[in-house]
Amino acid sequence: MSGMDGVSDFDSLRRAMAENSEEPEGPARNARAEQLLAEAEKLNIPLAVIEALGHQLKVYNYSSEKDKMFVPFARLLRMWDERPEDFDVYETHSLHWVFKWMSSGMLDQPHIPLASVEKWLGEMEHRYRLAGHSERAVRSAEFSVAAHVGDVPRAERAYGAWLAADRDSMADCHACELHGQGWWQAERGRDAEALRLWDPVLEGEFTCAHEPHTVLASSLAPLLRLGRVDEARANHLRGFRLVRTMESMRGAYADHVEFCALTGNEARGLELLAQRPAYFTDDGHPRSKLEFMTVVALLMDRLTELGLGDRQVSGPADRAWTARELAAHAREEALGLAARFDERNGTAHISERARARMDQRPLVERLPLGVRTAARPTAVPPPATAVAEVPQDAEPDLPALIAEARRLSDTLQPNAIEAWAAVSRAAGDAELAAVDRAEITDHRAMDLGPEGIDLFEEAAELYAEAGDPGEALAARARGAYVRALTGEVAEARTVIAALYDQVLALYAEDGTGVRQTAAVLMSRARILMRRVHEAAATVPEDSVPQAFAADAETAAREVLALVDGQAGDDVRLASRAAEAQAMLAELAALTGDVEGAAELFARASAAFVGAGLPWFAVEYEARLAGLAHHLGDTAEAERALRAALEHGGPHLEAPGRAQLHLQLAEVLGGRGLSEEAAEHALEAAHWADEAGESRTLGAWARQQLGGFLLRQGRFAEAAEVLESALPDLSAETHGDGAVVQTQWWLGDCLSELGEHHAAAERRLQAAEIARHWPEQHDHATLAHLAAESLGHAGLLADADQAYARAGVLWRSLGNVHGLVRALRARAWLALRVEEAEAQDRNDAAAALMASAVEECAAALDAVDDEEARQRLTAELGHTHRQFGDLLARSAAEDAEDESIQASLEEALSRMTRAVAVFASLGDDALHSRTGAELAAGWLEADLSRPERAAARARAVLAAYDRADEGDGAARERRAEAQQMLQVVQEQADAEQDKA
User: Which segments show compositional bias classed as Basic and acidic residues (predicted)?
Assistant: First the structure.
């Protein structure tokens, strides 16, 4: 750490304390403050000791060692009582300010008697009155004492007096006051009122070192209780980002762990605990330790309830813990701390609050957050779709079970296979009719897939025994299709050809019905489609042998011809017709007839929905969406995807659900509907995690979600999501374009959040990948953005280097605008280099700005396209304008009067050129022209030429003579021109008085 060397004088002490203030919260910063106090005492300057004590007090307060605050404060107070003249204005203010920290700090330490806290409150009131301060801060402190011990009447009185007293320099900042007021409303069960009070803090109107951090955390449970789950999710992502690195914010951190326990995000709650092992044992602030252990108990009880009591979890570092063990330990710790507070306070209030918090029930079963986390922990797999099971001690009602299974299979319900399995279990060794045994075996074969091929033959024999030769043929046909699925297409075709001839002969003799015949014909069509698909996999789609496609089409049309008009209420027959339509659609798509395919898929989907089988329509709506997208019909793509999600309902598997949500998010995002697109990307991320596809589909979904949040200006949430997506995104799986885009978006978010150093890192990483791309525009843009971030982070030399690199790239791309902007940015950076002499800085900056002007002028000479000419002319105008601003800025830093005059004259000359360039562009550049005109006017005033300045102001007023009242820029320009006229009039009057 710089500044660790010995302190030689008061200035170096102050510098060292300022540096230490910038260090992360924690014991190392506290130890440095103690060292600096020892150095201050050697200087023999009372104010140095006072400032060092104040610094020590502050770092203790913003750390886990808050209990160390009382000693330096007692010493400060003694120094004040003995020699108040040693304190300057700032330290006098600080001493009275930290009285408030002492009163709340005493409350947080259960070993300090309540009588001492009350005595201190009286002392504070007395001191504030002597110093002439309002009683607002005193009443606020009294409210804290009353609320802490559970004395509601006194708390309400103090709360009213707090709000009624005048705000003065001792009042807490607006953000902290609103936090306290909202906390009380939530405590009293008035959640909506709490959120109304917190709104200005949440919206960023009021901020401070610990706000909106604590308000975001405190808002989570009230939002969940009110059902405002989207806001709760957003506040968790925004708020956790703020408290993650701040050691002193254990109470707010606890609120985020509680949020995870109450929203089905137990896995994320465990991750949060693992990130802060010291929170289990830090004893310097008992109240926040109590809050933390309370929510640890809540989370561990939740895991135990889910059947995960034996799961290994992070706890105090001295040993390994299971969830059940940590639950008991945390509860004991929390109730032990609460009992100490209650013993001190003479009430049971703190224990009651702790128990109520530990005993909360989840408020949302599962709230997807969008960030990557381990899959939700589960002890046992969830039960499959409910099928009537027979209690072990009851006699099975076999006829009822068989009737139900038959109803489900006849109507093609998704859980028919489970129903027949239940019949089989219930039957045991009982003697069943051949047809019942046939159906049990048939459905078992369907369930087993390739392993069940032999069972289809067994089922066929049982159907034949039961006197149903048509169903026997249908079972063998199903077996042939499963064989085709295993790759034995030729063998399957041989088998199905014989079955096809047999069933048609049987049907012609009325030996079987339409349903059985349709089943064989459908298996044949499926096998012939399988041959088409296998061929398509080895050759381009439009090269599939015509004969294969023609055979499959004929087979599908045969099914349609057989079933046509005969389905009635028979769901099976209706589904055969729908599936045949889908086959024709598939064939149209394979042969390049995209529009025909779309129409046929729509028909197939409608047929399945019409038959009461919407879940079969999902696949075809999804295919239809893809075709519509290909045809540029985004409205139809959107409709089809929404329909697929709706039709799938509870039957959709997690991977399919994730895919559909992600596709819909992309379609909606393409239409600019970022908010709804974000909702679907969030769902996609959730279902991808559920499907165990976090690293593949989940990463895509998070990447998209981050982009949609960024578009909405939700930068902190977007950053959290993108940071959690990045580790899973890889060039191999997702393409390096996705990695670059994610880094780029993340850089934009971090830049907006003021995290410029981190933004620069992300942008440089993205630029490094884009450096290898054949098209270099992205590389140039990223290098430029990285330079911008480096400049904001104060890394001037690195920023200059990055702008120079961007400039070279812009030049190679023939992009004059990018090159000129890079040169202008470097000129402004040159002015900020502290190590250089002022004149050298000014010369370097002016030379770079002059280069920018030359590049613009040269490009203008070479251009013949009118639109490009207009854009370059505007760029030249802006460059002259910035040159003028730069010269004026450098003049202000100059010591010599003559050189100031020369710089201002040169600045005015540049500004005048800017006005002329913008004027040549007419009304399109009106605001730019008047802005330059006003800048020139102020320079005229600085050069003591009031008449010329006034003339420029009047020219601006004339330019907006007929401007629309709703034009904000016009209003601003007019106001500035009026202000200029007033200033130069005062200047002229002063000159006259002098004369």
Answer: 963-976
**What Å distances lie between residue 882 and 477, 850, 886, CA to CA?**
81, 11, 6
DSSP-based three-state secondary structure for 863: coil
Q: Are 401 and 388 in contact (CB under 8 A)?
A: yes
How confident is the model at residue 951, as a pLDDT?
Answer: 93
The two structure tokens encoding residue 350: 């703190």
**Residues 559/515, Cβ–Cβ less than 8 Å:** no
At residue 801 the predicted structure's pLDDT band, cuts being 50, 70 and 90, is very high
Residue owning tokens 């002015």 = 831
Distance CA 882, CA 907 (A): 9
Euclidean distance between the first and the last CA atom of the chain, given in angstroms as a whole number = 60
Q: Report the DSSP pairing between strands 321-322 and 312-313.
A: antiparallel
- Rounded Cα–Cα distance for residues 502 and 471 (Å): 12
What pLDDT was estimated at residue 803? 96
Tens digits of residue pLDDT in 918-973: 999 888 898 999 999 999 999 998 888 888 999 999 999 998 887 777 778 888 88
pLDDT in tens, 817-866: 999 999 999 999 998 887 767 788 888 999 999 999 999 999 988 888 88
Residue 321 backbone dihedrals phi, psi, to 5 degrees? -130, 145
Q: Whole-angstrom Cα distance, residue 872 to residue 864? A: 11
What dihedral angle (degrees, nearest 10) is formed by the CA atoms of 786, 792, 794, 797? 40
Residues near 132 by beta carbon (within 8 Å), at least 6 away in sequence: none
* Cα torsion through 838, 841, 842, 844, rounded to 10: 160
Inter-residue contact 956 to 909 (CB < 8 Å): no
- Which amino acid is present at 755? E
Question: Pick from 640, 643, 644: which is nearest to 628 by CA?
Answer: 640
- The Cα–Cα gap between 371 and 688 comes to 12
Residue 958: exposure state from Cβ atoms within 10 A (0-12, 13-18, ≥19): exposed
Q: What is the pLDDT of residues 747-784, one digit of tens each?
A: 999 999 999 999 999 999 999 999 999 999 999 999 99
The average pLDDT across 580-590 equals 85
933 φ/ψ angles, rounded to the nearest 5 degrees: -60, -45
Residues paired with residue 737 on neighbouring β-strands, in sequence order? none
- Tracing tokens 């395919």 back to the chain, one arrives at 597
CA–CA distance, 155 with 808 (Å, rounded to integer): 67
What separation in angstroms does the CA of 914 have from each of 361, 396, 852, 905, 920? Answer: 67, 94, 14, 14, 10
- Over 50: is that where the pLDDT of 392 sits? no
CA 389 to chain centre: 44
Nearest to 870 by CA among 810, 910, 920, 929: 920
Query: Tokens 């409709």 belong to which residue?
Result: 639
3-state secondary structure of 321: strand
Shortest CA distance to 521 belongs to which of 557, 469, 550? Answer: 557
Distance CA 198, CA 182 (A): 6
Residue 56, CA atoms < 13 Å, CB-side half-sphere: 27
Q: CA-CA distances (angstroms) from residue 737 to 729, 731, 771, 833?
A: 10, 8, 12, 36
Per residue in 107-119, pLDDT (tens digit) is 888 988 999 889 8
pLDDT digit string (tens) for 182-214? 999 999 999 999 999 999 999 989 888 888 999
% of the chain surpassing 70 pLDDT: 95
